[in-house]
Amino acid sequence: MLCLQADTNPGWIEVASRDIATLLCDHAHCERKAAMNGMYLIMHYPERDALVREMITLVEEETAHFKMVVGEIYARGMSLRRDRGNIYAKRLAEQVRKQDPERLLDSLLVDCLIEARSCERFTILAGSEAIPEELRGMYHSLMSSEEGHYLTFVDLAKIYFPHDIVDARLAELSSLEADIVRSLMNKPQMHG
Ligand SMILES: [Fe+2]
Ligand SMILES: [Fe+2]
Question: In 10 A of CB 118, how many CB atoms?
Fold first, then answer.
């Protein structure tokens, strides 16, 4: 699917569906961090008009997702818990080179991969009978939104960098992402 080179481990959905509370709290933080990341890119690249325009829209959408997931948490009589972080995003962030313009290219492509992986996981969640029906509807609605974000990041990369360089770096990072996914421990996290 999309640019991904490995499928999610088959055991993940079983673990995720057994602890919906943890999954929802981790998911809420993923949406919060996606919104914050959009603002972070605007802060670092204010002169890139297309990026600023797209990130304003993305921040609005990710904030709406955050609100929706927190609503599901409250509907279950729970509160949002502290973010435990996740090794997946941490290991991907380590791949971002420190100097521009490489930093911009890598940041956009790492974000694109995270969106693609989220889209794949929402597809699994939406199709699983082990997930409560109302949540399956929510995951289904998020699938297309995250696919749109994946395209946004690739398109932005192709505005600022030659297409062959974008394609080559995306293939490289996608291969690393696949290695990270294969090594995950099947936790009740969006990227666990
Ligand atoms: Fe989102
Ligand atoms: Fe997204």
Answer: 24
